Amino acid sequence: MTENIDITLADDELLTRSQVCERLKITPKTLYLWHRAGTAPPCVRIGRSIRYPARLFDEYLRSRVQADTVAEHDHD
User: Fold this and answer.
1) H/E/C letters for each residue in 10-63?
2) Which of 13, 17, 48, 67 is the most exposed place for a label (fewest CB within 10 A)?
3) pTM of the predicted structure, to 2 decimals
């Protein structure tokens, strides 16, 4: 699934797959499975490389925390 995202990369750090895995404490295989499921952080392809804009990665994390918090309260 390809999603068009309006981003400006000039001021945004680009994270590697390894950096994203390290920050999330997951394996590369898990990140791959998240991509297939459409639940991975937003990324951009630059040639054959995949990079994760740090700003979008941070937004992804915030949205996951909010979503998980809401889901937890729904079960109360």
Assistant:
1) CCCCEECHHHHHHHHCCCHHHHHHHHHHCCCCCCEEECCEEEEEHHHHHHHHHH
2) 48
3) 0.73
